[in-house]
Amino acid sequence: MMKKIFCQGYLWLLLLLLYSPILIIVIFSFTEARVMGNWTGFSLQLYKNLFVEGTHHSLTAALINTITIALITATVSTIFGTLTAIGIYNLRNRYARNAIQFVNNIPILNGDIIIGISLFLLFITLGIPQGYTTVVLSHITFCLPYVILSVMPRLKQMNPNLYEAALDLGASPMQALRKVIIPEILPGMISGFMLAITMSIDDFAVTIFTIGNEGLETLSTFIYADARKGGLTPELRPLSTIIFVLVLVMLIIINRRSDKNKKK
């Protein structure tokens, strides 16, 4: 009995430590106070400021850059990561398959700062001007292994005879891929896509090394520069709240769909 109470108490303590900072941000997003912790009354003014054109142009631009980079990164990573995972899975040579999977895991185990420095030196060596394109390429580079890792378990769970059966029934390789394999591994692809978006939005170490000096900003670099000035823009509180709620709703929808599919 005591062990159960201790385990439950420990779990609730961890959840409190994890979510209390987010809860504080959510609460103080509904006040106009410039300094968080100073409640000046309920207000939606900070939320209004986010959507008023020209009020915080740099923050809006950083948000748009972050979202577009994340969507491009996730889309490209999911397409190429899925094709790569299928290629690795169909390798006949077990040693070659294990070797490629080992190489794929290296960027995951490496620190972000090492990847950032490596890509920075690569772009400098090749004479590629740093900016939007280099940030997108860098994000695709470190998100790709995670997509492969998300799709591989689904391929291993799939019946290996389905593809050959589709070919025997007259389907072309492309039709078999589109109508047989893709539906089977779609949950893994969605997981990889969501993971790539999350990692791209969250990344700072790789972005700061590859963003260049053209004035491009993402949310992570904007927050870093803002914090170095001695404080954070108050509108970051409602923006963080909106992002948190959207991610939470998305996770709930995905989990409910997953539960329904399991029941079927």
Tell me what the structure shows.
- Helix 6 packs across helix 8 (173-202).
- The protein has 264 residues and is mainly α.
- The chain has helices at 2-28, 45-51, 57-89, 94-109, 112-126, 132-157, 161-168, 173-202, 205-210, 219-228, 236-263.
- The model has no long low-confidence stretch (mean pLDDT 84).
- Belongs to the binding-protein-dependent transport system permease family. CysTW subfamily.
- One of its GO terms (biological process) is transmembrane transport.
- It holds the Pfam family BPD_transp_1.
- InterPro entries: Bact_Polyamine_Transport, MetI-like, MetI-like_sf.
Q: Indicate the structural class.
A: mainly alpha
What is the N-to-C order of secondary-structure elements (H for helix, E for strand)?
HHHHHHHHHHH
Arithmetic mean pLDDT: 84
How large, in whole angstroms, is the Cα Rg? 22 Å
CATH topology (fold) name of the largest domain: MetI-like fold
Major beta-sheet overview: none
Q: Tell the overall outline.
A: globular
The CATH class assignment of the largest domain is Mainly Alpha
Q: How many distinct helices?
A: 11
Q: What's the CATH H-level homologous superfamily of the largest domain?
A: MetI-like
Helical percentage: over 70%
Straight-line N-to-C gap: 37 Å
Percent of residues in β-strands: under 5%
In total, how many domains does the architecture comprise?
Answer: 2
List keywords for this structure.
264 residues, 0% strand, mainly alpha, 78% helix, globular, MetI-like fold
Lay out the secondary structure.
Blueprint (H helix, E strand, L loop, with lengths): L1 H27 L16 H7 L5 H33 L4 H16 L2 H15 L5 H26 L3 H8 L4 H30 L2 H6 L8 H10 L7 H28 L1
